Amino acid sequence: MYPSDLRPSPHSETLAARSAHGEPGPRGQDPRSTALSIVRSEPEAATAPPDPRDLRRVQRVRKAVLAVAILAFLLVAAVTRPLLNEGALTGLLPGIGVLALFTAIIGRAWCSLYIGGRKTREIVATGPYSISRNPLYVFSFLAAFGVGAQTGSLVLAAAAVGLAVVILGATIRREEAWLSSAFGEAYGAYSARTPRFWPRWSAWRDDTLLEIRPARFVTTLLDGAFMLMAVPVMAGLARARATGIVPTWLVLP
């Protein structure tokens, strides 16, 4: 799907043909003035589509900022002991977090089957993208909770989600501005009927066939699997605090 204003309409082509053969334009208008008006109006109507490289630059910035945020989060988590670090409830929050991580990994891979490299060429509005404009990011928020939950602290789990919402939210706004510029009214109509995040299940529609790009699917799957590293990393930090290798500066619920 491309912006409609990049394709000349049949009506304009007819006018150009009439002018070229010296036929009168609408309402007996001089063919030379008709041709002149067409020549003048075409550069104004046709605008160059946004450069897909702009969208890739947004993604590179998002990854860089996210990397810094993850490092900062790990430093805080290293010196923070959860308030409930003993008893039957000790592993409850981390266990819920692992479930959230697996759900996020599967969900992100599912979304990649539909979006895989198509974002800059067309509006993807089927499957998970028929009920939410950003299902891939919704699963990323769930993954952030799963990572934060491995600390055993509800406060840090909420902080991880908050960081993801702030960083990815800025990326989403820039992506939506690019898509609106690229696809115009078509994207506006899609945005009007599809929620930004929370799914509208009644709007579900699907494709009978999908063109799958295996490389992108595998990349998304591996990116998601990398998040499972939070489980051994947080467990190692907990042991380091328990043995005194890492000091405890904060105690949070």
UniProtKB/TrEMBL annotation:
Ranges in a coiled coil: none
Keyword NAD tagged: no
Keyword Nucleotide-binding attached: no
Stretch list, region Disordered: 1-54
Pfam hit, one: PEMT
Bilayer topology term: Multi-pass membrane protein
Keywords from the UniProt entry: Membrane, Transmembrane, Transmembrane helix
Residue intervals passing through the bilayer: 64-84, 96-115, 136-169, 217-238
Primary location recorded for the protein, binned into one broad class: membrane
Entry-linked InterPro entries: Phopholipid_MeTrfase
Annotated localization: Endomembrane system
Protein name: Sodium:proton antiporter
Annotated organism of origin: Brevundimonas intermedia
